[in-house]
Specification:
The structure is a single chain. The protein has a domain at 90-145. Helices cover 82% and strands 0% of the residues. The chain has 7 helices and no strands. This is DUF4355 domain-containing protein.
Length: 181
């Protein structure tokens, strides 16, 4: 009985392995169909994520509205004022971060350092810390460059002239010996 199952499996595999020839139109149709399925799946996933985020925002807004409904007029005004102050502080922080980023990029350009370091340096947050870090980076890179230049300019010490001319296997040396006598 197991041989029967094995034979059936082998036959099924052989049938699956048979080559199917499709025309260009059929192949394109199948490829388009597969692409459409993938796009639909991606859209479905993105839509689900959007719905989740939207629902969270709605719930947050409802709870905020419920809080405001329970408050007195003065409490509402205070809450609105606090919300405005928070939004203003957030905008000011973003503006300061952009300004700091632009300044850091300018300094990096002036010092001849890669501008790609600006995001990492801005993460430090404090202008003094950033300037210190830029100074350290600049000094370190300059030292490394100088060291590499010195290494590349370094040559072997020349041999003394007397030892170079005393080579006994040199044919010119033999000729010179003849004329010295």
């Amino acid at each position: 009985m197991t041989e029967n199952n094995e034979n059936e499996q082998v036959e099924n595999e052989q049938e699956e392995q048979e080559q199917v020839t499709l025309s260009q139109k059929e192949l394109q149709s199948k490829l388009d169909s597969e692409a459409d399925k993938r796009v639909a799946k991606a859209l479905e996933k993105a839509n689900a994520e959007f719905e989740t985020k939207l629902q969270a925002k709605l719930d947050e807004a409802k709870s905020e509205g419920a809080k405001l409904a329970k408050m007195s007029a003065s409490e509402k005004a205070a809450a609105e004022q606090k919300a405005k102050e928070d939004a203003l502080a957030q905008r000011e922080e973003e503006l300061n971060k952009r300004e700091l980023s632009a300044n850091v990029k300018d300094i990096l350009n002036e010092k001849g350092l890669p501008v790609s370091l600006s995001d990492s340096l801005v993460a430090l947050g404090d202008a003094d810390k950033i300037n210190d870090a830029i100074g350290i980076l600049s000094k370190s890179i300059e030292e490394q460059v100088n060291q590499k230049v010195k290494e590349s300019l370094r040559t072997e010490q020349p041999k003394t002239g007397s030892t170079v001319l005393k080579d006994t296997t040199d044919p010119f040396q033999k000729i010179m010996e003849k004329y010295k006598k």
